[in-house]
Specification:
One of its GO terms (cellular component) is nucleus. One of its GO terms (molecular function) is small GTPase binding. It comes from Cannabis sativa. One of its GO terms (biological process) is protein import into nucleus. By secondary structure, the protein is mainly beta. Helices cover about 15% and strands about 45% of the residues. It is built from 3 helices and 12 strands. Strands 3, 4, 5, 6, 7, 8, 9, 10 and 11 form a 9-stranded antiparallel beta sheet that branches. β4 and β5 form a beta hairpin. The chain starts with 5 loop residues before the first strand and ends in a 9-residue tail after the last strand.
Length: about 200
């Protein structure tokens, strides 16, 4: 289906890249996005995909690092009832090597209640969050890839005007790739084209 055509997208000026459906629009065309983030949204489904470059959190162990970042994200967004549903073991990414050291990746899935923008707690939506932590230790960098999928939209949320209140329509019924698959594709196709982006190279 046309809305689900997958495309390799340049990130951070082409220094990084990842493949995901074309229906996700670059938010920087609409509003300002922090320099360390690339944010893509599908407004018709209120789904989003975020790529973030952070300094390596050396105090956080590889095992369970994605869960740590998930909890950190929840507190940052003042989420309520954050539950980690699953987390992966640590895997190496031979395709993401710098000076023969492969990146390590962990993933986690969680569910939480969060409000959009400046809306208050009374307008919280229940969302599922998929998060991958790609650790590029040789360049002292943590990459976060996070995907947000609404599970239940609050009638008071600004999202309700775009996607309707109540339980979100399953992706399959909309002819779209489910968010879990969008996330897996974005993570598995993530690549570094220019290691110079990380400064310390």
């Amino acid at each position: 289906m046309p809305e689900d055509f997958h495309l390799e997208r340049p990130l951070f000026g082409g220094a990084l890249a990842s493949t995901f459906p074309q229906r996700f629009q670059d938010v920087s065309n609409i509003r300002e996005v922090p320099d360390h983030q690339e944010v893509f949204v599908d407004p018709s489904r209120d789904e989003s995909l975020i790529f973030e470059i952070l300094e390596l959190k050396e105090e956080v162990g590889d095992d369970g690092s994605a869960s740590w970042f998930l909890q950190d994200l929840a507190s940052e967004q003042e989420a309520e009832g954050c539950v980690v549903i699953e987390q992966s073991a640590v895997t190496e990414a031979p395709g993401l090597c710098y000076r023969s050291t492969p990146a390590v990746i962990t993933t986690a899935v969680g569910q939480m209640a969060i409000s959009k923008g400046r809306q208050g707690r009374e307008a919280q939506n229940v969302v599922r969050v998929y998060i991958a932590n790609v650790r590029l230790k040789e360049v002292n960098t943590d990459i976060l890839i996070s995907a947000y999928e609404p599970i239940r939209v609050n009638p008071l949320s600004e999202s309700a005007t775009a996607v309707g209140a109540g339980a979100a329509t399953p992706a399959e019924l909309s002819g779209c790739t489910p968010m879990v698959e969008v996330f897996k594709l974005a993570v598995s196709t993530f690549k570094v084209n220019n290691w110079g982006l990380f400064g310390s190279v």
